[in-house]
Write a structure and sequence with these properties.
Its cofactor is Zn(2+). This is Alcohol dehydrogenase. There is one protein chain. Helices cover 22% and strands 23% of the residues. The strands form 3 sheets. Strands 3, 4, 5, 8, 9, 16 and 17 form a 7-stranded mixed β-sheet that branches. It has 10 helices and 17 strands. The protein has 2 domains: 25-155 and 170-179 and 368-400, Medium-chain alcohol dehydrogenases, catalytic domain (Quinone Oxidoreductase, Chain A, domain 1), CATH 3.90.180; 202-345, NAD(P)-binding Rossmann-like Domain (Rossmann fold, 3-Layer(aba) Sandwich). The protein is of the alpha/beta class. It has helices at residues 65-72, 120-123, 192-195, 201-212, 228-239, 255-260, 276-284, 298-306, 349-362, 382-390; strands at residues 25-31, 40-46, 53-62, 88-97, 107-110, 150-153, 160-163, 175-179, 183-185, 220-224, 244-249, 265-268, 290-293, 313-317, 337-341, 373-378, 396-400. α8 links the parallel β13 (290-293) and β14 (313-317).
């Protein structure tokens, strides 16, 4: 693998996997020890992969709102600490155990929603919900043996404590171990500092527009929440010829970036003097064809649902709802409108994501990936990246390991 460039602006050497394969690696990881505690750079031991697992060297990672909610411990299933968060990244394979199609040095993106390729769900065209490796927010250990692969060792060398996994990936570490079903190989020429966006946000939003909604040219839609996922929906809708794209947010600073991504109309919720769905119905003479709820807010979900046109309106749920409360819908309101949720934009990650990546690299799908990258920082400044996300000042802050 001599001469293997990780990405255009990287000085990292290639990973050959020979010197470290089968051995415990000690590396830096951003460990969170409790809810809302600052990430702490720790030395952790990373065990070798078990059968059907791979160990990855992470080179680029970023923080998503799902990481933020887990860091806060917003619901019971997320209160597992100490933990290594992170699920949007790119890197190279260091080693694998009993894995076909992946070898040392391969460029890859880890994905939180896996695909085994063999189960009934993976063989079906109706779903990307793998029976064995679908996203499971309750899981904090590896599937093979119910154990972790990360261990913190105290300064005296005598205290060894398990550090738990997150969303099948745990990318806030220089090395991580993931199930092979949760790794997607990318072309050798693919720049990893752009490929990492396909790990979560861009794929989820674009897929929601293209695959979940199957949005048609000339359509109208409204997007609730103009973070990375919401703007990825807009990008997907723009590329599919949507006629009117309405963006809703409480932060008007996001509107300039939204316009860049194809949004035609903006609504600041704080400026509304009547229910938002009435504003949207008035604006569109009856409602939009599609609505996309990307905030994880129950009130926003209801407004998104009622914003669609009676008779054919479709609402796509993308936001992560941590509240235990049920949907704020009356059963009779479902007559004439539909609602559906999507995970990873309904992409089957291993069998369908490479096609999207290849089309992007060839210029056949003109995704504006650069528009999502607003900041870049060294991995050691992860707490600064978290702060930027909390303040709504960044879409994706790339962290270089």
């Amino acid at each position: 693998m001599a001469g293997f460039d990780i990405c255009p602006d990287s000085n990292h050497p290639p990973e050959n996997g020979h010197a470290t394969a089968g051995k415990v690696i000690t590396c830096k990881a951003a460990v969170v020890w409790g809810p809302e505690e600052p990430f702490k750079m720790e030395d952790v031991e990373v065990e070798p992969p078990r059968p059907m697992e791979v160990r990855l060297r992470i080179l680029i990672t970023s923080i998503c709102h799902t990481d933020l909610s887990a860091w806060k411990g917003e619901n019971e299933c997320q209160r597992v600490f100490p933990r290594i968060l992170g699920h949007e990244a790119a890197g190279v394979v260091e080693s694998g155990e009993g894995v076909e199609g992946l070898g040392p040095g391969d460029r890859v993106v880890p994905v939180f929603n896996g695909e085994c390729g063999d189960c009934r769900a993976c063989r079906s065209e109706k779903t990307n919900w793998c029976a064995g490796y679908a996203v499971d927010p309750m899981r904090s250990v590896m599937r093979a043996d119910g154990r972790v692969r990360f261990y913190w060792v105290g300064p005296d060398g005598t205290h060894r404590r398990p550090v738990y996994h997150f969303l099948n990936t745990s990318t806030f570490a220089e090395y991580t171990v993931v199930d092979a079903a949760c790794v997607v190989k990318t072309p050798p020429a693919a720049p990893l500092n752009r490929m990492c966006l396909f790990s979560c946000g861009v794929s989820t939003g674009v897929g929601a527009a293209w695959k979940t909604a199957d949005l048609k040219p000339g359509s109208s839609l409204v997007i609730f929440g103009l973070g990375t996922v919401g703007l990825a929906v807009a990008e997907g809708a723009r590329l599919r010829g949507a006629d009117r794209i309405i963006g809703v947010d409480i932060n008007p600073d996001k509107f300039a970036k939204g316009k860049e991504m194809g949004i035609t109309d903006f609504i600041n919720l704080n400026d509304c003097t009547k229910p938002l769905h009435e504003v949207i119905r008035d604006l569109t003479k009856g409602g939009v064809d599609y609505s996309f709820e990307c905030t994880g807010n129950r009130d926003a979900l209801r407004e998104a649902f009622l914003s669609t046109h009676q008779g054919w309106g479709l609402t796509v749920l993308l936001g992560v709802h941590s509240s235990p409360k049920f949907l704020p819908l009356h059963p009779m309101e479902l007559f004439g409108r539909k609602i559906v949720a999507t995970v990873f934009g309904d992409f089957k990650p291993k069998s369908q994501l490479p096609d999207l990546i290849n089309k992007y690299l060839k210029g056949e799908e003109k995704l504006n990936l650069d528009g999502f990258i607003t900041h870049e920082l060294p991995f050691s400044e992860i707490n600064q990246a978290l702060h930027l996300l909390q303040e709504g000042k960044t879409l994706r802050c790339l962290l270089h390991l």
